[in-house]
Amino acid sequence: TSHMGKQVFTVDAMMPYLTNIKGAIGKNLFLKDKKTKALYLLTANHDREVKLNDVAKAVGAKELRFADTELMYEKLGVREGCVTPFALVNDKANDVTLLVDKLLVSGDVETVSFHPLVNTATTTISSKDFN
C-alpha cells in the first residue's frame, strides 16, 4: 500500500504525515567505510538511535561516515531524501550491503514502511515480505 504525501528530506519531517500508518517506519542511512570504501545501507526503525561507531564495530569497519549524494545516485539511483531498501534493486553490481534493524525483521511488527524511491510517498509492506 502506498500513501502519497509532501516532499520531505528527513524522517522527522515525514512523521507528521504518517500518523495513520501502523507498524515500523524506516529511516535509512547511506554509509561508507572511510578506509575500505565499502558501502552500506543501514535501515532502522525511525526512532532508533544509531551510533555510527557501534555500527562500524559490528561490521568490522574502522570508521563509518555518510557517503556523498552523488555516490548514492550512482549506486542506488536515488537522490537525497529518497534512499530506501527498495533502491537496492538498482545496485546491479551488489556494491551496497544492507544492514537491518532487528525490529524490522523479527516479527514483532506486522508491517514496515519506506519511501518507494521518491520522497513524496511512503509504501507499506508486511515485515514478512521485507524479511
Overview of the structural elements:
The protein has helices at residues 11-14, 52-59, 69-76, 102-105, 127-130; strands spanning 2-4, 24-33, 39-45, 64-66, 96-100, 111-114, 121-126. It contains five helices and seven strands. The longest helix is centred in the middle third of the chain and has 8 residues, at 52-59. The radius of gyration is 14 Å and the shape is globular. The two termini are 17 Å apart. 21% of the residues lie in helices and 29% in strands. The model has no long low-confidence stretch (mean pLDDT 90). With 131 residues, the protein is of the alpha/beta class. A hairpin with a 5-residue loop joins strand 2 (24-33) and strand 3 (39-45).
On the 0 to 100 scale, the average pLDDT is 90
Q: SSE order, as H and E?
A: EHEEHEHEHEEH
Q: Count the DSSP helices.
A: 5
Q: Roughly what fraction of the amino acids lie in strands?
A: 25-35%
CA-CA gap between termini = 17 Å
Q: How many strand elements? A: 7
Poorly predicted residue ranges: none
| Morphology | globular
Measured as a percent range, the helix fraction is 10-25%
Structural class of the secondary elements? alpha/beta
Q: Note the main sheet.
A: 7 strands, mixed
Rg on CA atoms, Å: 14 Å
